[in-house]
Amino acid sequence: MIKVQDLDTPTLLLDYKKVIQNISEVSSFANEIGVAVRPHIKTHKSIKIAELQLNAGAVGITVAKIGEAEVMAEGGIKDILVAYPIASPQKINRIIQLLKKGIRVKVAVDQEVQLQLLNDVLQHTSLELEVWIKVNSGLNRCGVEPGPHALKLAEKIMMKKQLKLGGIFTHAGHSYAAKSIEDIHKIGVDEGKAVVDSASECEKAGIPIAVRSVGSTPTYKQAGAVKGITEIRPGNAVFFDAIQVGLGVTTLERCALTLLASVVGVYQDRIVFDTGSKSLCLDKGAHGNETVKGYGLIQGHEEITLERLSEEHGVGVFLQSPKLQVNDVVQIIPNHACTVANMFNEYVVHEDGLVIDHWKVDARGRVK
Q1: Does 368 fall in a domain?
Q2: 303 with 161, same domain?
């Protein structure tokens, strides 16, 4: 077997034991509180990892884009939520093709105009499309306001012959800007209540809501525990990363994804690695996160801060000279695992320092 330290660099590494542990933790939590799991695969974009999640009890998957849904469908996955508003004719026709193949696909809606556009295209078919209302729980991105506004949209859905209301969901992405665990807990509870309150408004009006779904890795345990929630959709929890560590959601030991990099130069005031923005990305958190320092955590070398990246170079600074030389290799925990995974064609899967497999990043680059 090949040892990890003998691989060429930069290489995307995935610790098998850790990823299995992370999948198991989500599944165990869901079983304990009695909710379903529909993990967001935009983190890993891998059919193999999605299959592991389904084998652990997930009822289906969540995707961000139709391109991801198409890849997962080709891989044999039948139950898919596209957690993104769909309105353009091109995209609606792609959804129709998935329905014709027997895929149980659902799409997000948050505006009346989307309903009309979806129904206009679908009325030329005999197909029915399941839609889920996305409510805004504080991120202020997409999403109808919870409560009466969600009910108004639900009533409009009920009037569309070829649309079926299947659920209400939200994503508390603003939890990534939380200043403390206490803040995360509050955001999570509010996230769950935004969905439950919206569902209650609908059911008081005689509109049943079968699925009440929450997401966000930092908050899924708090939001999932809100009475009335039926499903959780964590994505990053399959890997974890430096942002999750900074938020206090997990520990360094639970981070399954790392980037293997080599030292290309050691200088008086800096050290340079062969990984830059084209592999580690420049992400420090999309929603205001300020808990990370630098552009990744170098395992075993806390004295180094990866201060800046160019395209192919990672430049680290240090308070004391590190015990590293040219061609030494290190593993770097990325700030944001989702964006880094999308930069590579495959995961090199390892266990106890030995390479055991290679898994494709099947939906890499599927952003349409």
Answers
A1: no
A2: no
